[in-house]
Write a structure and sequence with these properties.
By secondary structure, this protein is α/β, with parallel strands linked by helices. The chain has 15 helices and five strands. About 0% of the residues have low confidence.
Length: about 325
């Protein structure tokens, strides 16, 4: 994979290639943005470009260094992942020791710290020591979803690059190239909200099944006396399942709520995120006022925001449920 193979974020690619051309790549960088948009891939391409034997501002993909990095067998490019949901101080201590050793095979030593926003405070303080005086031949790239979870003293020592979601047009094009019908590709590209990785991992039948369940859940939230279905389906699940499913469910609930608002305001149907549910939404239009739908969307978006802030999932579920339960007595 080279820079050209990563969809979207052309601004970031331009910045990195210029830095490579001028031999002025910062020793510490922070790549942040939504999940599934290629932040880690971009970091690894940058690592390959810095060690490439043929090109100066990209990965050639054919030299020994590029091939070794692709295979995960290059000793000077190391990826660090959370252990049991956190990056620990011992991992950063090892990084610091290795960072002061000269590269074994390549030109530069590169560390890619994945999910850097999951560092413990002790790990972050340990990392900070090397960021203050980094060796000239070592580079540290932090990859994070939530930059607000990273210490400000670390961010101030990094070049911070914000990654944007991949456009729905680009995702749709890739899905069509992989054999999806245009209508199906459009629906998936709208639902994943720029998450290319998620779009490529979904099967159409799976998407339809999840959307059907989310639609029934959306109706249960709006209809008095049916709200208990929500808690029964999701609040009693295992915590790991709740976090993974909850985010997808919220995104789908949000899409149905947004479509309901568009239909209520008689907006252009081409803007709908679920165009195949247009008639179903119109049938249920009387369930809630425009003000109520906007309020509902606000609550859903707050829950999505809470997940991004790593708030307690069970509390989010309970709070969300309690809000809609109040409607039954309103």
């Amino acid at each position: 994979m080279a820079f050209k193979d990563i969809l979207g974020n052309s601004r970031v690619k331009k910045i990195l290639r210029k830095a490579l051309q001028k031999n002025k790549v910062p020793n510490s960088m922070l790549f942040y943005g939504p999940r599934g948009i290629g932040k880690k891939d971009m970091a690894l391409v940058l690592a390959k470009a810095m060690n490439c034997e043929r090109k100066k501002d990209d990965a050639c993909e054919v030299c020994a260094s590029c091939k070794a990095i692709n295979a995960g067998n290059f000793p000077d490019v190391l990826e660090i992942y959370p252990e049991k949901e956190v990056i620990k101080i011992d991992q950063m201590r090892i990084l610091r020791k290795i960072a002061y050793l000269k590269p074994m095979m390549g030109k530069k030593r590169v560390f890619v710290v994945v999910d850097a926003d999951k560092m413990t405070e002790e790990a972050a303080n340990s990392l900070l020591k090397i960021l203050e005086e980094p060796p000239l031949f070592s580079y540290i790239i932090l990859v994070a979803y939530n930059p607000f979870m990273i210490m400000s003293t670390i961010k101030s020592r990094c070049q911070v690059l914000n990654f944007c979601p991949v456009s729905k047009e680009e995702i749709g094009k890739i899905l069509v190239e992989k054999g999806y019908e245009e209508k199906k590709a459009r629906i998936i590209s709208l639902l994943v909200r720029g998450n290319l990785k998620q779009a490529l991992s979904l099967e159409w039948e799976e998407v339809q099944d999840k959307r059907a369940k989310a639609w029934q859940l959306f109706l249960s939230l709006l209809r008095k006396g049916k709200v208990a279905l929500f808690l029964r389906n999701y609040a009693t699940s295992q915590r790991t399942l709740v976090r993974n499913e909850w985010e997808q469910v919220l995104e789908m609930l949000s899409s149905f709520c947004r479509d309901s608002i568009l239909i209520k305001e008689k907006s252009d149907s081409r803007l709908l995120m679920n165009p195949d549910y247009e008639e179903e939404i119109k049938k249920e239009e009387a369930l809630l006022s425009l003000e109520g739908l906007i309020d509902c969307l606000t609550k859903i978006d707050y829950a999505i925001y809470g997940l991004g802030k790593n708030l307690n999932v069970n509390l989010l579920v309970s709070s969300f449920f309690s809000y809609f339960k109040e409607w039954e007595y309103a």
